């Protein structure tokens, strides 16, 4: 079914970005070409990860990232090395997903607490889209969420399908343009109508144009086309942050994250070798820049965590720094004007008051903002004039204050001091920032207080 829907006239300018950097369309960054890899298999073996580490070292600069949506990024490639990377992946048997990004929970089909396995619907939707000639936005994102411990409630998507228990099994809540709470609800669809309903939305996006996103859809018209009244009630089962130790049914699962989402290939290889010796059997990429490890036992868990510590992987749910997004920075990108890793470590050491998980922080080497394209409560961004401070904005926004990169550590210390002094007992970072006058923060940052 093809429908033409009017554009919703809201300001969307800053969210429109370029193509997704796949292996077919690598993205130029300050440290060479970057490719984002979405393995088709839900789980990777130790051999897969060792092969990826070797390929990153041989064909890139060895820096590997796990993105916020649980994809892999290899950096520092060249036009000449990308074809070799593709050949190496094929030789290792690592098949990549192409086309529209359709995400399912990392334990779909495995987690006994899920409402339903989202993978079959995701596969059917992927196949249905591939049979069309639609030109869709390169960064179009679809979430098919069957629930469970690591459900994707907080993942933003253009089109969401959330399973909800129904009288006769499962129904799917279709919504557009947001996470589970913020997406605009369209309809509750029965199991046998959800694929057609989702394809109606995909067709509507294609009809609007090749850059259309979920925010551009006319929800009332879509609901009418689907023959259902918009649903106002969001299903609200929260997701569990993947970091730390979890019980899924009878098995022990360890969630790891390379510090700030970044790892050197050698560290990844050492981690995989160490975890394999502890019994690790498979690894699942997961949201929040994490890797879920299966096959460990209660007896080997402590050794596995020690191995993670040795190799620079966070492994506790309250790891400091997990709410800070950083890009490669001066250590790996020629566009960066300062070392983002050192700045993030300074935030952890000096401004822990901001790291309670209630806000996102972003440290960006330049205004491109690769690591966190959406707004963050606090952003430190490299500019030609120094390191800018941006409150509740994107790296591409104009900074409210700029200091020399050499002054950043003391500036972070001053920010931490003023916030610690103002914080009421038990107060969240979000509340603290909301009631602190921006002028006080800017003065502290610039050393004027
Ligand atoms: S945001 Fe960071 S990684 Fe991206 S181009 Fe700028 S400095 Fe490089």
User: Which CATH architecture of the largest domain?
Assistant: Alpha-Beta Complex
**Biggest sheet record:** 5 strands, antiparallel
Q: CATH class of the largest domain, please?
A: Alpha Beta
Strand content: 15-25%
CATH-defined topology of the largest domain: Sulfite Reductase Hemoprotein, domain 2
Spell out which ligands are present: iron/sulfur cluster
Share of helix, binned: 25-40%
The overall strand count is 20
- Helix segment count? 11
Total of domains: 3
Describe the structure in your own words.
With 449 residues, this protein is α+β, with helices and mostly antiparallel strands. The chain has three domains: 149 residues, Sulfite Reductase Hemoprotein, domain 2, CATH 3.90.480.10; 126 residues, Sulfite Reductase Hemoprotein, domain 1; 123 residues, 2-Layer Sandwich (Sulfite Reductase Hemoprotein, domain 1), CATH 3.30.413.10. The chain is built from eleven helices and 20 strands. The strands form four sheets. It has a five-stranded antiparallel beta sheet. Strands 5-6-7-8-9 form a five-stranded mixed beta sheet. Helix 6 runs antiparallel to helix 7, helix 8 packs parallel to helix 9 and helix 9 packs antiparallel against helix 11. The structure holds iron/sulfur cluster. Iron/sulfur cluster (SF4) binds next to loops.
